[in-house]
Design goal:
By secondary structure, the chain is mainly alpha-helical. The chain has one domain. 48% of the residues lie in helices and 4% in strands. A two-stranded antiparallel sheet has the order 1-2. Strand 1 and strand 2 form a beta hairpin. Helix 3 packs across helix 5.
Amino acid sequence: MHLIAKQLNAKWGEGTVTLTIHDQYRNMSEVIQGCMHLIDNAVEAARLADIVPDVAPIRGGTDGCRLSYMGLPCPNLGTGGYGYHGPYEHITAEGMDLATDMIVKLIQKYAE
């Protein structure tokens, strides 16, 4: 991106293009890798709640990403919803019940 800005300024005059890059969201996997018990226990809690866990990286920034880099590792556990950030975003009562059951089971795991 810096090279493109430099080339455009060379073509159209210095100061035509300015480029500022800010860190917004980092990949929190490096934080989570040191705390795999979070993932392992979440997977077990999901199975106990009759949910098939889908452990996969997600695109985009979450509050959990920011909190992870502030020292509180927070992987995304999901809510049971569908079609996020689109015109058909929704959640069913059954999905909320399953998500709640999983969270309760996860809390029970850590209380053991």
